[in-house]
Write a structure and sequence with these properties.
about 325 residues, alpha/beta, Peroxisomal Thiolase, Chain A, domain 1, 2 domains, 5-stranded mixed sheet, 4-stranded mixed sheet, about 30% helix, globular, binds acetyl coenzyme *A
């Protein structure tokens, strides 16, 4: 037994902020941002919370899958920007949906969070522990950016993507995931104020801090190997895969991965021009856009792959 995606949905924060908008509030330009990243604009949340974005994406995925909330037995939200320390975002979404038969928990694996969640659902379904699961990637990253650090804050956006996975004979064929906590120190967010009156808290540590070049090197060194591993395991040639749906961090990273695999960029659809990097939400948002454009047919093989803070990474080969 494995799991098959039977519905997708997404929901972006309403306010769109272009590179030109950013250049009015910081020393940057459309030329600098677009040429280095492929990003033109990003959705930024004002009133919207992570729970709200997650719930809206979940409702769209459930409608697409024709599954009712009561039929779900598992909800996982991948996020690093839950509205609360506790309860988990998955529990808040469960309450909003009225999915009271579902177990619910969050996974924090940053930009690889959706892949870690998919792998977890795969394992639950292989073990016969879940029949219908909802996976949501949801982020309001604008809340944890250092808006005085132009090299980081221009990269990210806010939104959510969701999929419904059903236990099935076909679907997910192979998964790979990994972590490297040593190199992970290059991308951090120490976003937890210490409330202990005996301890002085350094508030400068509360926002995202990133060594961009270290992240870049990590991504281009780990992602091709992770994808090749699942292709070799399943005797699949890179050209047998219709689309490679990768985390939308940076166009140049995707170009290097495509080169390593010997595959043309036509097979790497993107959303980053209008979404920026929405961490755990980027892959399900991309998948939803690809589905809504009618680009996938039953039986197509696709690879999903995510990488990010931790450092963490994960890849999955599936038959649509
Ligand atoms: N606008 C204008 N100039 C800028 C900006 C900006 N927004 N940001 C930095 N600069 C300047 C720097 O100050 C520096 O100026 P200097 O040479 O006078 O000192 C110059 O541009 C070059 O800065 P670098 O940091 O060396 O720029 P680089 O070419 O490495 O590009 C970038 C930075 C785009 C972040 C790149 O390192 C990258 O793509 N890294 C991947 C990281 C990533 O995608 N992270 C996403 C989050 S993690 C994840 O999702 C996996």
């Amino acid at each position: 037994m494995t799991g098959r995606i039977i519905g997708t949905g997404s929901f972006l924060a309403k306010t769109r902020v272009t590179n030109d908008d950013l250049s009015k509030i910081m020393d940057t330009s459309d030329e600098w941002i677009y040429s280095r990243t492929g990003i033109k604009e990003r959705p930024i949340a004002k009133e919207e919370t992570t729970t709200y974005l997650a719930t809206m994406a979940a409702k769209a995925a459930l409608a697409d899958a024709k599954v009712t909330p009561e039929e779900l037995d598992l909800i996982i939200v991948a996020t690093v920007t839950n509205d609360f320390v506790t309860p988990a975002c998955a529990c808040a979404v469960q309450a909003e949906l009225g999915a009271m038969q579902a177990q619910a928990f969050d996974i924090n694996a940053a930009c690889a969070g959706f892949m870690y969640s998919l792998h977890t659902v795969y394992a639950y379904m292989q073990a016969g522990l879940a029949k219908r699961a909802l996976i949501i990637g949801a982020e309001t990253l604008s809340r944890i950016m250092d808006w005085t650090d132009r090299s980081t804050c221009v990269l990210f956006g806010d939104g959510a993507g969701a999929v419904v996975v059903e236990a099935s004979e076909t679907g997910i064929l192979a998964c790979d995931q990994g972590a490297d906590g040593v190199r992970g120190k290059n991308l951090t967010c120490m976003n937890r104020t210490n409330n202990n009156p005996l301890v002085q808290t350094d508030t400068r540590l509360q926002y995202v801090k990133m060594d961009g070049q270290a992240v870049f090197k990590f991504a281009v060194s780990e992602v091709p190997g992770s994808i090749k591993k699942i292709l070799e395991e399943t005797n699949t040639k890179p050209e047998d895969v219709k689309y490679y749906l990768l985390h939308q961090a940076n166009l140049r990273i995707l170009q290097i991965v495509a080169k390593h695999l010997g595959i043309s960029m036509d097979r790497f659809p993107t959303t980053m021009d209008h979404t920026g990097n929405i961490s755990a939400a980027s892959i399900p948002i991309l998948l939803d856009e690809v589905c809504k454009k009618g680009m996938l047919n039953r039986g197509d093989k696709i690879v999903l792959s995510g990488f990010g803070g931790g450092f963490t990474w994960g890849s999955c080969l599936m038959e649509w």
